[in-house]
Amino acid sequence: MATVLAFHAHPDDEALLTGGTLARLADEGHRVVLVVATDGLMDAAPENGEPLRMRELRTSAAILGVDRVVHLGYADSGHGPLFYPDPPDRTRFARADTEEAAERLAAILYEEDAAMLLTYDANGGYGHRDHIKVHEVGRRAAELARTPRILEATIPRDTVERLLRLVRLLRIPLRHDPAELTTRFSARSAITHRYDVRRYARQKQAAVAAHHSQVDGAGRMNPVMRRMIRLPAPLFGLLLGREWYIDVSPSRPSQC
């Protein structure tokens, strides 16, 4: 059995992008380590106790069977035209020195003797500045740690277009620019792995639901997340029961 490290930008990304894969890996007996670059906070971390979003992340991780959760130590950079100054206690991830952040992640990869790193495609999925930084830092960390396999989580653009049509059909408010979303993620021709994770749909849905602050909040994805967790599990699995990756390993295996 191998150790797989999944590197994400914020708490809740792990469930939305790779929840089924993490549950499947854990179910198959692999050790799963989850590292988030940020704790999801825009301001300084609380002096006493762990931030709410990190507590939610640990609940989600337990549902998915993750063995270890690590915060890399950076603050959320936010999304949109305004790039706020750093909080007093740490650097926003998008402003972090790439080499320094990669060394932090590489140390965990090395400590865990990870056989595979899950990270993000070059677009950072939908283009969030922290997601793009995850791609850059993940690639460099894998190089430093000589991690043999690297899979970049993404979604085919044509699948994104179909999901957007469904969102409009169901009259779910979407605060993302649809035109922007359909030019992000990855072309289907670039994708090397598609995993059927419908068997783990209930775990993935429960992991999403564990992020109460995001489900019940006023963020751009909240209306979509609220509808997602209310779907019957079979329908959730039908819509979100596949996860996609691009294999960018130094020596890519000939087969999945």
UniProtKB/TrEMBL annotation:
Protein's UniProt keywords contain Cell membrane: no
Keywords: Zinc
Family annotation (Pfam families): PIG-L
Keyword Acyltransferase: no
Gene3D superfamilies: LmbE-like
Name recorded for this polypeptide: PIG-L family deacetylase
Species name: Streptomyces javensis
Taxonomic lineage from the root: Bacteria, Bacillati, Actinomycetota, Actinomycetes, Kitasatosporales
